[in-house]
């Protein structure tokens, strides 16, 4: 079954986790703008340096930069069995540009699923994240039983600058101002589906599949 979804929600809502489960379930291509940003930064290009300057402060990356990265990625989408966008679009201009790009490829969205999570839980989820600088594995401090070291290679875990508590709060404020209006945008297009994003990943995934079933029938 071909699905073309946007997973919508604040930072820490669980979009990446649910996208991974959906990818396994439907065989669709998972496209995360966060991954696109980190890839650009790793390449140490001018574009990557621009991305880093915004992300380190917890600000949204400007639309023009985001769309340059996304349009490059969309070239491969037409070859895949559907797609799952995670963390994109983040503004109405991005959504409009995205819709135009899909139309040019004779595609349209199946749905936009919004994961609803309380802000206090979002802050705890994000500020507790740690990453291994060696193998890039991602952990949460609540799940670590032997201190903040990677269970695989024993490397000291690090906190990304944009996961620090103050940066998280800035990201959530920016989300409320610039990204939250997208809910109404997609509601008017009759594409918006909303689910409770709290609880275990399995519980959230069960809700997600349930709300998707009517639009997939």
Describe the fold and architecture.
The structure is a single chain. With 217 residues, the chain is of the alpha/beta class. The chain has one domain: Rossmann fold (3-Layer(aba) Sandwich). The chain is built from 9 helices and 7 strands, in the order βαβαααβαβαββααβα. β5 and β6 form a beta hairpin. α1 (15-26) crosses α9 and α2 packs across α3 (46-55). The radius of gyration is 17 Å and the shape is globular. The relative contact order is 0.18. The model has no long low-confidence stretch (mean pLDDT 89).
Question: Helices and strands in order, then pairings?
Answer:
Elements: E1 4-8, H1 15-26, E2 29-32, H2 33-42, H3 46-55, H4 63-77, E3 83-86, H5 92-104, E4 111-116, H6 119-127, E5 129-131, E6 138-140, H7 165-179, H8 181-188, E7 192-196, H9 201-216
Parallel strand pairs: 1-3, 1-4, 2-3, 4-7
Antiparallel strand pairs: 5-6
Helix pairs in contact: 1-9, 2-3, 4-5, 6-7
